[in-house]
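Quick note —
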Amino acid sequence: MDLEGEIRSQPIKKDSWKTLLTLAYQSLGVVYGDLSTSPLYVYKSTFAEDITHSDTNEEIYGVLSFVFWTLTLVPLLKYVFIVLRADDNGEGGTFALYSLLCRHARVSALPNCQLADEELSEYTKDGAESHDGNIVWRLKSTLEKHKVLQRLLLVLALIGTCMVIGDGVLTPAISVFSAVSGLELSMSKEHHRYVEVPVACIILVFLFALQHYGTHRVGFLFAPVVITWLLCMSAIGVYNIFHWNPHVYQALSPYYMYKFLKKTQRGGWMSLGGILLCITGSEAMFADLGHFSQLSIKIAFTCMVYPSLILAYMGQAAYLSKHHAIESHYRIGFYVSVPEKIRWPVLGIAILAAVVGSQAIITGTFSIIKQCSALGCFPRVKIVHTSSKIHGQIYIPEINWTLMLLCLAVTIGFRDTKRMGNAAGLAVITVMLVTTCLMSLVIVLCWHRSIFLAICFIFFFGSIEALYFSASLIKFREGAWVPIALSFIFLIVMYVWHYGTLKKYEFDVQNKVSINWLLSLGPSLGIVRVKGIGLIHTELVSGIPAIFSHFVTNLPAFHQVVVFLCIKSVPVPHVRPGERFLVGRVGPREYRLYRCIARYGYRDVQKDENELETDLVCSIAEFIRSEGPAYDVGTEDVVNDEKMTVVGTSSSNVEGIRVCEDDGNVGEMAGTSELREINSPKRVRKRVRFVVPKSPQIDVDAREELRELMDAREAGMAFIMGHSYMRAKKGSSLTKKVVINLGYDFLRRNFREPTFALNIPYASTLEVGMVYHV
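Predicted structure written out below.
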């Protein structure tokens, strides 16, 4: 599965108008499904109990005014015109902002960062560097010096991530339930109570069951469904405006917000928790930026989504302004404003739109958990790529079924949009507050703009969001406790795993074996060297891991070629295939010890075992070929062990060495005039050959080394993994003992093993057990 070409083609910077409009069309189905279904439940949640719909219409006009200005200021002004510009090489979302800050202020939570990572093509730092004495420089140095501030920044990013996961539970529940609630107008009150919840649960089970198959097979239907829904809402809105109240546009004036709050007072403030639901899904514009371009998302929102939503809300308000007796029979909702003759078709379209909107947030939840896992902030999970052509189409079984169970629990437990809306509103506004805080730092540290501008940004948008946050938080007992509880649980899991991973790495660094010990053993390492390649997986980017000495001490035999393999994540979204590997030697040439560091971005697709093995062998062979004929390692160079060469993958390095594997038939390459082969001795089993360019010439030592590498590849490759048991050392605090001995150990035992998460075959894996006292 070769996704690397697809990955690099995603962030399109300069598009033709045809491509741009195509992307805008596609974004309607992926990005705006959640936002477009908000009219189903906004008015119903707002008028649930805090305020009433009176004959003066001051309440309905005030709510419409709040909805209009909230949609204008937050999605349109904040996200479309400001936040979308803060992309991380075309990627967006909470971790994109955190990644930008990590690169510009050196506050990364990843322990094994290297200076070589800063030479990556996507490791860019925009703007001029600040000078000493500058406020920006002082802020940057303060963040770099104080570990507490770095932890707070990480916790802030994790809180936003946890709330996104909570939104992945609540949005499908409220969207599907609100769409199904149209049944209450088509049957008696006695029957619809027993129909809504089962129908909603059946749709949710069907939705989550389909995740395993991926969305690429039906994804082409998403945009038409959302467009049909937006046009349907707009048409109904225009009809209601002209038929019931053509003067409803006057309510768009901010003066009606003042009148609303003056009349309703505390009840009006509490009802803001329902009004903020009109911006659910706005964060998706930024989170899904990696699949589209900035301009395409802006065009789709300003030309289609924004006008349709405004017309829909105005149409509902126009209808309700002439109907004041609705509450005596049914609660205020979207379907009461739909003409009776078309309610059933509209109900069907609404359910489809709710499913599309739910699908987008579920896929987004999978994506952000993958990013967390890549950055060491979430336990290892099984990641299934459901499409070999579309980047980002992933499926995580454990998370999928957990989300489904939580969705069903919320739907069955609440059984109304009021408490679901309170829960979803708090999750949505918390994510937006986190984005506002991180954006203010990006403005200063990454864009190098005035700190006054950052203060204005956080004060203006932070004040609006804090008002809605307080209104949502006051509904803690009426449903808002759900996202808080979910986020608390996920935050504990993430921080415990990150803390344990960090302590494990610190133990590895403190207990790594000295290179002098290796040199004292001689080229044979004092053990029997058998045929084959031994890949020792380690998190270390320098030095010799303790598991190697532990292994050879207890079993004095090892492979003729040893590779210390480090698969690490870097704080960039993607690493170009040509910059994938860092390859170097450990010790002199005759030792046949190599270090290979495979670098992946937090949104990269890690290869399966076959591709990884081939690329590793090719990268080492290319390193040997390009090293030059005169390679003499001095003692100082050996001890430092820092000379690394950047080598690309076999698919990206067209002019480099390639591997040919067959069953002994060499005729297929015999006619190649520009290539020559280095053949290994004949064997009955699968044959491995290196095909190298005709020039430059390879010296005798390099040819011999390549021949040994081919022999070792033919003999097979074994993965040596460290199976660590972590325990808090004596004298540790009670909190540390609970976190390490109970929390981290529980997560390690109940989530995926490293062999499974890294796609390493069990048949060729050898685990070395060690106890880590941290």
